[in-house]
Amino acid sequence: MADLALIEAVNLALASEMQRDARVVVLGEDIGRNGGVFRATLGLLDRYGPERVIDTPLAEMLVAAMAIGLSTQGIRAVAEIQFSGFLYPCLDQVVNHATRYRNRTRGRLSCPLVIRAPNGGGIHAPEHHSESLEATFAHLPGLRVVAPSSPARAYGLLLAAIRDPDPVIFLEPTRLYRLFKQPVEDSGEALPLDTCFIDRSGTDITLVSWGAMMHDTRLAADRLAEDGISAEIVDVATLKPLDLDTILDSVAKTGRCVIVSESARAGGWASEIAAGLAEHGLLSLFAPVMRVAGYDTPMPLARQERVYIPDVSRILHEVRKVFEMAPR
Asked: For the chain: N or C, fewer Cβ within 10 A?
């Protein structure tokens, strides 16, 4: 057991699974000698050698194609894309091949592939380094989309993603890479995919979030507690397939819901969750479901991104609107 930051937990999970399973291979741009742009693969080349830690050319479509080819031939490939905004060239390979192998071959082949990428803003980088693209990939049938919110969940969910028989997009919250540490045990135990986690129990309102925005959501819940409002926090964790039942159960208890997302508002995954609540949980709600999200603009450059990314004050503003419509 050691106190680890999220990026260290990712590194630990990769090393642990490479030790456990000789089929696991990692590949990507600068992941070997340099240890990756955020150092997620630091030390793996020395431990496992160049046949299992592969530096690729600067060509994201090639990285995805190599990983898919390896994964269909019995290798557990884990590809790193340096930033989520660089995932667009991978779409051709992911959409037309990775997500279709199981159906295309009537189950004879699968594609046990993980594509890791930092996701979202918070490091004051150019706009294409800081986008939040989870809804783009969650729209694709046949693809799991996972977004951890803490070091311990990053460790357990990444193990599960590598062991999964189908392709997974693993979106690591850039802003949380080194924001805080927590105890992480290198137990080799995976956390379950396809399920939400109740991060904090409450009775008055349900706050739903994932990835980096879970940090702000937890801070908002602390502020609400000071005012005597008990907020239940649901960490979605696996966005696709969505565990709507856990969210519905929480809203049935609290009667109110605010969904917090960093991505652009229109067509975001918060909208999909809100639609599910409208279809299946309407009679449990005392007030409309509210969304806190980014704006329908490109991610601004550098320090301007702090205006774009939702913060605690914006979360509290939407919560207050809910209680104005439906007082306790």
From this structure: N
Beta bridge partners, 54, equal: 27
Task: With a cut of 80, say whether residue 45 has pLDDT above it.
Answer: yes
Alpha-carbon distance 182 to 6, whole Å? 9
> DSSP state, 165?
S
Q: Residues in the chain, how many?
A: 328
- 26 Cβ neighbours under 8 A, 6+ residues apart: 14, 18, 41, 44, 52, 53, 54, 77, 78, 79, 80
pLDDT tens per residue across span 61-75 = 999 999 999 999 999
- Non-local (6+) Cβ contacts of 139 within 8 A are none
Active site residues: 129
CB-CB contact of 196 with 210 (8 Å): no
Confidence check: pLDDT of 328 > 90: no
The phi and psi torsions of 12 (rounded to 5 degrees) equal -65, -40
For 8-24, the pLDDT digits (tens) are 999 999 999 999 999 99
SS3 56: coil
CA distance 282 to 57: 51
User: Considering the domain 2-184 in this protein, what is its CATH number?
Assistant: 3.40.50.970
Residue 46 has pLDDT above 80, yes or no: yes
What is the Cα–Cα distance from 69 to 56, expressed in whole angstroms?
A: 14
Q: Delimit the CATH 3.40.50.920 region(s) of the chain.
A: 197-325
How far apart, in whole angstroms, are the C-alpha atoms of residue 234 and residue 215? 12
CATH 3.40.50.970 in the chain is located at: 2-184
User: Can you spell out the DSSP letters for 60-115?
Assistant: HHHHHHHHHHHHTTT-EEEEE-SSGGG-GGGHHHHHHTGGGHHHHTTTS----EEE
Q: What is the sign, positive or negative, of the torsion defined by CA atoms of 84, 86, 88, 89?
A: negative
